[in-house]
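Support request from a user on the community tier.

User writes: "When I paste my structure tokens into the form, the page sometimes reloads and wipes my input. The last time it worked, I copied everything first. Here is what I submitted, just in case something in the input itself triggers the reload:"
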């Protein structure tokens, strides 16, 4: 009998992200405390839920245009002008995607030819690596250091530019480090991109969650609009992770070239979710302030708790993650995460899953109420200082 064929070389060479193994271990352990997930526990706002119900009741459940509902693109363009200083034509420059994840995938696929390099601050969101791999690109890590709060040093970016460099990525606030990049550093990155003829990819998914510093969009800088792909979504800001809506904003030419691929992937973002996303943008925004206050209180709680336990960390300026230093345990971050799960029934991701620079750290997410966070940290202490 002829052997069953295997999957493609491309699939095998990129491989499965390591995080899945731990996640599967966690899912086999009911009752474990999940300090690891990037999924906010706060509910989506009521007007978002109402808009989804209304869309269903009206039968608005068929395909939308590939670019997304025009009304939603208009709401996105208004938001970008108002909050980010980005001018975007909703007809041509905005693409609604199935989660931010698809926007990132489309971007790498659209920008990279095989062998093209992407400069990416390390530590980084672990899904970027396989996405760059599937696009045939090469991930070039730009180290950011715990001693500097994992902030980006533009000189480190420029030093790594080669004739194959195609794009530099900025993610602020950052997952997993919580770093918020200084506007001057972002201006320098923009200048480097202009000097070397590069694209900038700016993932701004956590922009509403800033405790210190401020949001700043590279695409708002003079001359940067057409060389920047700005990526954003609804998952973290409005607790809409399962709704799968995100978007990207780029020049009309780049967006136009993405449409065939975008159609091939998912045709359009879920229609009901697009109506819900429109309500999120057009509805009351004071909800964001309230949510920020809750995450800020949890951040303070975790920092206090860690200090009391004699565990250090890099206090985040944004997003809802804290990189906790577990070097005192004498274990690698992966050994630590496995031991913590097996011994104390607490799940989190090791720093090694986010590149090289967060080895020695684990990522704690602030997506749980304080009593559960406290219990998780108490159990963690027993593994850091046995
Ligand atoms: C930096 C970053 N970009 C993109 C995503 C994907 O988000 P979405 O749920 O909008 O697809 C995540 C999810 O954690 C993320 O952290």
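"...and here is what came back when it finally went through:"
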């Amino acid at each position: 009998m002829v052997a069953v064929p295997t999957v493609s070389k491309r699939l095998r060479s990129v491989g499965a992200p390591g995080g899945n193994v731990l996640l599967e271990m966690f899912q086999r352990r009911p009752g474990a405390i999940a300090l690891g997930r990037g999924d906010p526990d706060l509910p989506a706002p009521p007007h978002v839920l109402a808009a989804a119900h209304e869309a269903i009741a009206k039968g608005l459940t068929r395909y939308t245009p590939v670019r997304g509902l025009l009304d939603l693109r208009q709401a996105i363009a208004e938001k970008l002008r108002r909050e980010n200083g980005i001018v975007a034509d909703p007809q041509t420059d905005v693409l609604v995607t199935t989660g931010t994840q698809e926007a990132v995938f489309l971007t790498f696929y659209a920008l990279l030819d095989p062998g093209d390099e992407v400069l990416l601050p390390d530590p980084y969101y672990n899904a970027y690596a396989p996405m760059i791999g599937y696009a045939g690109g090469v991930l070039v890590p730009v180290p950011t250091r715990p001693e500097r709060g994992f902030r980006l040093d533009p000189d480190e970016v420029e030093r790594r530019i080669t004739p194959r460099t195609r794009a530099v990525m900025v993610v602020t606030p950052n997952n997993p480090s919580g770093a918020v990049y200084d506007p001057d550093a972002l201006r320098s990155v923009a200048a480097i991109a202009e000097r070397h003829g590069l694209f900038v990819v700016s993932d701004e998914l956590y922009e509403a969650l800033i405790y210190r510093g401020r949001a700043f969009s590279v695409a708002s800088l003079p001359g940067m609009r057409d060389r920047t792909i700005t990526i954003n979504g609804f998952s973290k800001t409005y607790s809409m992770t399962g709704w799968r809506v995100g978007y990207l904003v780029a020049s009309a030419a780049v967006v136009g070239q993405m449409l065939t691929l975008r159609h091939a992937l998912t045709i359009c973002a879920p229609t009901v979710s697009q109506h819900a996303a429109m309500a999120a943008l057009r509805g009351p925004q004071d909800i964001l302030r309230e949510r920020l206050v809750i995450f800020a209180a949890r951040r303070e709680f975790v920092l206090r708790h860690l200090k009391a336990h004699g565990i250090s960390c890099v206090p985040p300026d944004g997003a809802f993650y804290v990189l906790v230093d577990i070097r005192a345990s004498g274990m690698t971050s992966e050994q630590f995460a496995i031991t913590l799960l097996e011994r104390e029934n607490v799940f989190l991701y090791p720093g090694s899953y986010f590149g090289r620079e967060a080895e020695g750290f684990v990522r704690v997410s602030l997506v749980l109420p304080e009593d559960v966070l406290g219990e998780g940290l108490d159990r963690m202490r027993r593994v850091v200082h046995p």
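Agent notes: The reload is a front-end session timeout and is unrelated to the input. The longest strand covers residues 165-171. Residues 38, 99-101, 104, 125, 171, 175, 203, 205, 233, 235, 241, 246 surround pyridoxal-5'-phosphate (CB under 6 Å). Escalated to web team.
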